[in-house]
């Protein structure tokens, strides 16, 4: 995931000029080269403060440690939860690499449409942002499981009687 994210960002940065667009599905989807200094989907990108990037980096590192800790506490057999956590982790790492290396995140996926006589435009995003959103969706699906469908969520080194009990 991190490799695909980095590769696609590199392709966009080397082949599409800043703010240039390449239409893929006219009226719906295009590639655009945007440098995002804010959070996901450009939130806070226009802030004229040096504190905002610092807070974003600290927050992303905090999320990284929380997700890693939760992934280690979750049973490996709980596939839906593990995939969701790893997608979130991969996306966070992909964007952190950009922030530390470049000072911004390269965004390039641009979805928009005219509907009901009005233009609707979603802020540009990237593969890492998509992975984070899909991962969060998988976490929500995992939370909706019935208790009997859940797998034990205890560390592998826990006592056997604790490993056999279902997650509550």
Descriptive tags:
alpha+beta, 168 residues, 5 helices
Detailed description of the structure:
The chain has 168 residues and is an alpha+beta fold. The chain has one domain. It contains five helices and four strands. The protein has helices at 2-15, 51-73, 79-102, 127-143, 160-163, and strands at residues 21-25, 29-36, 105-115, 118-121. A four-stranded antiparallel β-sheet has the order 1-2-3-4. Helix 1 runs parallel beside helix 3 (79-102), helix 2 (51-73) packs antiparallel against helix 3 and helix 3 packs antiparallel against helix 4. The longest helix has 24 residues, at 79-102. The mean pLDDT is 83.
- Helical amount among residues, as a percent range? 40-55%
Number of helices: 5
Count the strands?
4
Strand order of the largest sheet: 1-2-3-4
N-to-C series of helices and strands: HEEHHEEHH
Major sheet summary line? 4 strands, antiparallel
Roughly how many Å is the radius of gyration? 19 Å
Give a summary of the structure in a few sentences.
This protein has 168 residues and is of the alpha+beta class. The protein has one domain (2-19, 30-149).
Chain-wise SSE layout:
Layout: H1 2-15, E1 21-25, E2 29-36, H2 51-73, H3 79-102, E3 105-115, E4 118-121, H4 127-143, H5 160-163
Antiparallel strand pairs: 1-2, 2-3, 3-4
Helix pairs in contact: 1-3, 2-3, 3-4
């Amino acid at each position: 995931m991190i490799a695909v994210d980095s590769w696609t960002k590199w392709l966009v940065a080397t082949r599409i000029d800043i703010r240039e667009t390449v239409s893929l599905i006219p009226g719906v989807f295009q590639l655009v080269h945007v440098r995002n200094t804010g959070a996901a989907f450009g939130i806070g990108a226009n802030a004229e403060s040096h504190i905002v990037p610092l807070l974003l980096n600290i927050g992303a590192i905090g999320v990284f440690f929380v997700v890693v800790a939760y992934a280690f506490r979750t049973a490996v057999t709980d596939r839906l939860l593990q995939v969701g956590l790893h997608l979130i982790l991969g996306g966070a790492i992909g964007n952190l690499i950009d922030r530390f290396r470049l000072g911004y995140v390269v965004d390039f996926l641009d979805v928009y449409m005219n509907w009901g006589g009005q233009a609707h435009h979603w802020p540009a995003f990237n593969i890492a942002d998509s992975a984070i959103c899909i991962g969060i969706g998988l976490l929500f699906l995992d939370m909706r499981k019935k208790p009997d469908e859940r797998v034990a969520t205890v560390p592998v080194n826990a006592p056997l009687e604790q490993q056999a009990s279902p997650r509550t």
